[in-house]
């Protein structure tokens, strides 16, 4: 099969499949956002822990 034949044979998705694809993409985006937030919070917490209790004893 040549490339032009493959381009011509593209099928149009049904609305149900398109809606399912949008839901899956949204769910994946939310999961990635939560994972990124947890990653950032982990680094923030580790930084505070590494600084130790002397961080709160300093003069403001």
Major beta sheet, specifics? none
Rg from Cα: 24 Å
Order of helices and strands: HH
| End-to-end Cα distance | 73 Å
Explain what the structure shows.
Helices cover 72% and strands 0% of the residues. With 60 residues, it is mostly helical. The radius of gyration is 24 Å and the shape is rod-shaped. The N and C termini lie far apart (73 Å).
Task: Give the key terms.
single chain, 60 residues, mainly alpha, 72% helix
Topology:
Elements: H1 3-8, H2 15-51
Task: Provide a compact summary of the structure.
By secondary structure, the chain is mostly helical.
């Amino acid at each position: 099969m040549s490339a032009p034949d493959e381009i011509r044979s593209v099928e149009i998705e049904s609305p149900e499949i398109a809606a399912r694809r949008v839901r899956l993409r949204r769910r994946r985006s939310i999961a990635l956002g939560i994972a990124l937030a947890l990653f950032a919070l982990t680094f923030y917490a580790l930084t505070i822990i590494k600084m130790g209790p002397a961080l709160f004893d300093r003069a403001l």
